[in-house]
Amino acid sequence: MVLAIYPGSFDPVHLGHIRVVETAANIFDEIIVVAMQNREKEGFLSLEDRKELLKTSFEHLDNVKTDSSSGLVVDVANNFNAKAIIKGLRSSGDFEIEMQMAQTNKKISHINTIFIPTDPEYSYISSRFIREIASEGGDVSSLVPEIVSEFINKESNSNE
Hints:
The protein has 6 helices and 5 strands.
């Protein structure tokens, strides 16, 4: 069985992420989508909320599980005995950053990174833009799974 992890902040998970995982689920026997805690970023959503939203967002895929973690991605991959790390690509800018990380991860852990380009209709979507729009009360429903949109709207209304 070939297991891969798909790490990211997923703050929040969006339709581009969903499509990358759907593609990966057709390639690998099992995928674990891992919400990572990034010490350099203040979270828009809590790690627990992100983990729960991931779980719900991927219920339609039998071979996808979700988790959350902090620390190094390669350590998470090793803990799951993953054979690969999946990274989604939107643009050449993503490629340059992700390639450097992939080469570093390979050097320190011998785990390969597999790049999956996102579908063109999702290439403009960014969690950063979603956070900005949502923080200003904008509608993000066309960018995220329905459960994520509902959660963000509920949180926004409870903070008023």
